[in-house]
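User: Can you fold this complex?
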Amino acid sequence: MSNYRILLQYEGTKYQGWQKQTSSDNTIQGKLEAILTKLEGEEVSVNGSGRTDSGVHAYGQVASFHLNTVISPQELLEYINRYLPEDIGVISCVTAAERFHARLNAVSKIYCYRIFQSQLPHVFERRYVGEYLEPLKLDRMEKAAEFLIGTHDYQAFTSAKKGKKSTVRTIHSIRFEAVGEEIRIWFKGDGFLYHMVRIITGTLLEIGSGQKEVESMKEILDSKNRQNAGFLVSAKGLALMEVSYDS
Amino acid sequence: MSNYRILLQYEGTKYQGWQKQTSSDNTIQGKLEAILTKLEGEEVSVNGSGRTDSGVHAYGQVASFHLNTVISPQELLEYINRYLPEDIGVISCVTAAERFHARLNAVSKIYCYRIFQSQLPHVFERRYVGEYLEPLKLDRMEKAAEFLIGTHDYQAFTSAKKGKKSTVRTIHSIRFEAVGEEIRIWFKGDGFLYHMVRIITGTLLEIGSGQKEVESMKEILDSKNRQNAGFLVSAKGLALMEVSYDS
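Assistant: Here's the predicted assembly.
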């Protein structure tokens, strides 16, 4: 039995996110498992580095799975790509250490949120950007973002109900990039809660446009209350860019 | 009555090209005329700088039309964009001289053909590139392209049947650009015949991969026979980038 690690890209537009659902196979994980289960002749479980929500894209999702089938990584890559729809693609495939697990061994992740700031149509980018027309002050957003760096309880920035699972995470950096009529926000952290990047982005937009004070970011974080944070920005502007592992 | 000039972008994937067809309104021109005819209350004809084929994209198509309706260019832009599907967009709108005609006054056009050279999936570019896996020698393609520069009868490079219309055109330049795993070919000329850019591209690919000799380009041009030229590359790799006018 071999353990395989794949690097995946997908346009999330048509999918109900990464995670397989019992009621539908319209998920990235579902598509992969169906192809691998057919190859293997029995059920194969695919572990992604983490879930991406419905409509979210990936330039660098990582997944791992075990197969008894004897097949080279290159042949496996070609086999999977032959059956995947064209909005999902395997970019690389390698054999991994027996104990490698794409989610459990992930050390950090980078997400990028793209915000389009013009009323003009954006025909070629429309599937990949969120829209926000209010003028934004990047320096306000940068200052507010500093309150979020480090290890914190991000309960205020998730749509998940408070449960037994920890809502403590570490954000390493939040960086801002202005590209033409677009602002890109890069998030690097050890992991992100359900909707966390999109709610932080919405909060940053409300601060950047002056609807919220810069210092409110600290109060929102401390309050651990979702009601205090900003709006949930649309999924289509978000993409998982990179997942890092030790060694 | 005012004459308007608009700059348009569209993703051609879902459309049967620019030109309105009697049997279908699934064309760019058809969509625009329907919107403007509704605004005007009587039939409006929209003149494009030229036809783009089914599946071909545009980053800088230009069109012109007359309206009796009193409306500012900015209001008109917003009105049209409100009713256009999101894969077509008006980027700018200005009033033009009474006699301005987007096709008759066009002086030159720039097209770009993108060729993806890898077997790996190209999830985010799949709608905008043609695929060609044979290794290509750009210096061979550059030399062959030189035979086409200038004013010539390009009958060999069009799918249109020989008729009364002139097949003489002027190509100002053909330039090659290597971008990662992609080759882009830029064509500038006073106008292009039906399928001309795509058949020239197919011929250049056959020369670049060694299937045809560099010098064969001159023979094909002189033969004025479509049978001698290369294959018709797919529409999705082609985009109309820019149309130029005097003054």
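Chain A has two domains: 2-96, 107-245. The mean pLDDT of chain A is 96.
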